[in-house]
Design brief:
The structure is a single chain. The protein has 693 residues and is α+β, with helices and mostly antiparallel strands. The chain contains 11 helices and 41 strands.
């Protein structure tokens, strides 16, 4: 809802950080956009200025006001203040802090120093000519830059605070960036089709490699650095210099995502040592900010997140020795994300999941703990998922919590003790739902007969307990998160698009998804085709025993993106249970999708597991009724991924439906026309509710 006085443009920000406009919201207008949890959206002004960005969660509504946009700017300012308070010194740029020298890359592609006082004094720092390496910014990690765009770039340089040393990064040029092409068949402004392209590295592609070069300004010479500890980077991030200027620090994410290090480089000698060295036999989920925490607590101590105990917890490290001072948090639960660090009081405020063993393990609660691990305090206790806001200069917490089957409750709580001061408001859940049957929470043991699997059931608005209904699962089993909604909504989009047409719709978080134990999560490693299906099927069978109106002889499934991949996998490997599937914009072969996501879960180098998990390579196994939908302008998942599946299905003489949506982008299967076609597909092959008599 746009409650500002100006028009706003909703844009999707894809992985190459390109903006794609979706809708214009004039003042007072509202708009509903289907998205996937984790996708990044933004708001643009009329002149194209990016006003705000947000990551899609399971929240249903967002009101954009002048105040909310100001809050975004204040958050940026507070982030800047946090960076200024950091102990590490950031001196990125060409000019030295004492203003004596200027570093630059010249036409010969070498690094030069120019004395600002005596401009005739030029010093060539680099002396090794290698056409494969450039000081210009050709690329790093997941983002790719063309050589033409880099010609005017001075690259990445970091001066020590005392101006005695300079770090510069060279990048190995591995050739042209991998590119995806697609044809826009029906452009708005012309009759003829348009060929589009964008840079899109995929698993196994060569990546530009960054290499640190260290120079002594006094000696005007390079100091040799041993690159062994960061020789195969997926990404390298320069963290800063120690205030004394004698050491600098890097964060190194090794390709394959099984090693993540904080590395110290001694300026005078080039000596390299790991301060923090995190490894995993499966993967380290570097892409989630709750699992990739690195914060400076004091000059002597750093904060680090790790799943080494089997759960995501915080650890305090001694900067000098690189040893663990203490575990800040511990237990069979997870730190979800840090909200605030008070360095004066030495306290950390954070959200946690799984704190109450007898409740939904995905509900978020607010907590506080001291740097030394003492005085751990749960500041919320209501049975639901919580969002808090500090008020009265941090004296109180405004705590709002809800569940899918319970409308919001708001309480005022003491920020020090968590004690409830007063209940401020609560909504009548039944009044909000009206006569409709409440969305139902349900849990049942998974494949091992012990681990509880949690999900929810959406009932048709005119649900008749005397009838048996076909069941449809809405699936999204991306291992980067958990995906079943946890907070209250008066009406879920899935209610009026699927359930009210005469289906019982379920959503389930199976094994292989995030925010349970590390062992629960690790099931996805090199095994994305699993998608928690043995847990989902066990859950559905248990739910049908509890609710006999669920006809599990007639089960359908649908999803988009990772959910599209999951949907087709259900009909390939579990076609005896799932009878009908509608897969939209699926990543049907992990070799065809974006590098950062797929290598994180499927590993590197690319091996046979990619083939074993491929819907395309295994298309001949198809059972049941399948419909594939695809937007021709998809820039999130290469559209060719679905087309390759279509070819394999034709070769295997399989009967299926394929729907290409001209002008559609990622998620086009949720457009009004396509979602109605999906509904008709389910009606045709699953049937309608039947009397239980």
């Amino acid at each position: 809802m746009n409650r500002t006085d100006a028009a706003l443009h909703l844009v999707w920000i894809n992985e190459p950080r390109r903006r794609q406009r979706y809708e214009t919201l004039n003042s007072g207008e509202s708009y509903q956009q289907h998205t996937f949890i984790g996708h990044v959206w933004g708001l643009e002004s009329e002149n194209g200025k990016l006003l705000a960005c947000f990551q899609a969660t399971d929240k249903a509504h967002m009101e954009i006001t002048e105040e909310s946009l100001r809050n975004v700017r204040r958050e940026e300012e507070s982030q800047h203040e946090r960076e200024k308070s950091n102990w590490l010194q950031h001196t990125r740029g060409q000019t030295s802090p004492d203003r004596s020298w200027r570093a630059e890359i010249r036409a010969d592609e070498q690094l030069w120093l120019n004395a600002r006082i005596d401009e005739s004094k030029d010093v060539k720092l680099s002396d090794k000519v290698n056409k494969d390496w450039s000081f210009r910014k050709l690329g790093e990690g997941t983002h790719w830059y063309s050589e033409s765009a880099a010609k005017n770039s001075q690259g990445e340089m970091h001066w020590s605070p005392d101006s005695k040393y300079l770090v510069a990064f060279q990048t190995k040029n591995v050739g042209n960036a991998p590119t995806v092409y697609y044809v826009e068949s029906t452009p708005r402004n012309q009759l003829q089709p348009i060929l589009h392209s964008y840079q899109y590295p995929k698993p196994g592609d060569d990546l530009p490699i960054k290499r640190l070069k260290l120079y002594s300004i006094e000696e005007q010479a390079e100091i040799e650095v041993d690159h062994q500890l960061f020789s195969n980077p997926f990404s390298i991030r320069f963290l800063g210099w120690a205030p004394e200027g004698d050491r600098c620090y890097l964060q190194y994410n090794q390709r394959g995502h099984q090693a993540l290090r904080i590395i110290e480089v001694t300026a005078g000698t080039g000596k390299v040592r790991p301060i923090i060295d995190e490894t995993s036999d499966t993967f380290i989920q570097y892409s989630d900010r709750g699992k990739s925490v690195f914060e400076q607590l004091t000059q002597d101590h750093w904060l680090w997140a790790s799943e080494r105990s089997g759960w995501n917890h915080l650890y305090r490290y001694d900067r000098s020795s690189g040893s663990v001072v203490n575990a800040v948090t511990e237990g069979e639960w997870n730190v979800k994300r840090i909200e605030r660090i008070d360095r004066e009081k030495e306290q950390i405020w954070f959200y946690a999941v799984g704190l109450y063993p007898d409740r939904d393990p995905y509900h978020e609660h607010f907590c506080r703990v001291n740097f030394d691990g003492s005085n751990f305090t749960k500041l919320t206790d209501g049975d639901g998922t919580h969002r808090v806001k500090f008020i009265r200069d941090g004296q109180f917490l405004l705590d709002a919590y809800s569940r899918v089957d319970m409308a919001s409750v708001t309480e005022l709580r003491d920020a020090k003790t968590g004690e409830k001061v007063v209940k401020l408001s609560s909504e009548d859940t039944k009044k909000r739902f009206g006569k409709r049957r409440l969305t139902t929470r349900f849990r049942a043991p998974g494949r091992d007969g012990e681990t509880d699997i949690w999900g929810i059931i959406h009932w048709p608005s005119d649900f008749d307990p005397g009838k048996k209904y076909p069941v449809v699962e809405n699936i999204y089993a991306g291992p980067h998160d958990q995906h079943v909604p946890k907070s209250f909504r008066s009406r879920y989009w899935i209610q009026h698009t699927v359930a009210d047409a005469g289906f019982i719709v379920v959503q389930i978080d199976g094994m292989g998804t995030a925010w349970r134990s590390k062992a629960f999560h690790d099931l996805c490693y090199k095994n994305l085709r699993d998608a928690g299906f043995p847990d989902r099927i066990a859950w559905l069978k248990a739910a049908a025993k509890e609710y006999p109106q669920m006809d599990i002889e007639r089960v359908g499934i649908f999803g988009g993106s990772a959910g599209g991949q999951n949907t087709m996998a259900a009909l390939l490997w579990h076609g005896d249970f799932y009878k009908v599937g509608v897969a939209d914009c699926g990543c049907h072969d992990n070799r065809m999708d974006k590098i950062w996501w797929n290598e994180q879960w499927m590993g590197w180098p690319v091996d046979e597991s990619y083939i074993q998990n491929s819907n395309m390579e295994n298309a001949h196994l198809l059972q049941g009724k399948l419909m594939l939908t695809l937007g021709e302008k998809d820039e999130n998942v290469d559209p060719a991924s679905t087309i390759q599946v279509v070819k394999k299905l034709i070769e295997a003489n399989k009967d299926f439906e394929f729907v290409l949506i001209p002008g559609g982008g990622h998620g086009a299967g949720e457009s009004r026309w396509a979602s109605q076609k999906r509904l008709r597909f389910f009606e045709a092959h699953l049937g309608s509710p039947q009397s239980m008599n």
